[in-house]
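Q: I have 198 residues here and want to know how they pack in 3D. Can you give me a structure?
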Amino acid sequence: MSNTDIRSISDQDLVQQYINGHEASLEELIRRHKSKIYTSIYHLVKDSYLAEDIFQDTFIKVINTLKTSKYNEEGKFLPWVIRISHNLVIDHFRKEKRKPMVANVEGFDIFDVIKVHDESTEDRMIREQNHKDLRVLIHLLPSEQKEVLIMRHFGELSFKEISDITGVSINTALGRMRYALNNLRKMMQTKELALKNI
């Protein structure tokens, strides 16, 4: 099977092919999702070496689960892997006797996933400044709100998955997300007013 063929296959089919002994399918799944998974771990642990260790532990667990045919997350490979990685992060912090904190959001950008084509230099500069401002504002959010925002928008987890990982009810997770977005909106409006008054 060529690289072009394998890249057009769904995650679910790749998982099935890997279970059936096609090793390259797992490599494709890792290539496809490594950046999102690693970044979502890094923003919780704030340490690149620890994030790399947890990333590797995550895929050891993924491989073991797939090899023992215990995988049953129909079509939801990425959220499943991120849930495993976040559980490993929580286990790490439990061992360390401290609660997971969402990292300073340097490098985190909700919009990184969006590819921007055919934009002028001026548009690009405005977009980059807006993203930089947004990163700063996200950093100012309380840690629980920041955590839910990153899991939801970057990790693409459902509120049920976020609630399982963080140990709070779905309503609490929804509430934290609502507060995070409201706080971001207020901070953006305050910043706009401050700029107008300069």
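Q: Anything worth noting?
A: Residues 103-118 have pLDDT under 50 and may be disordered. Residues 1-101 form a domain with the Rna Polymerase Sigma Factor; Chain: A fold (CATH 1.10.1740.10).
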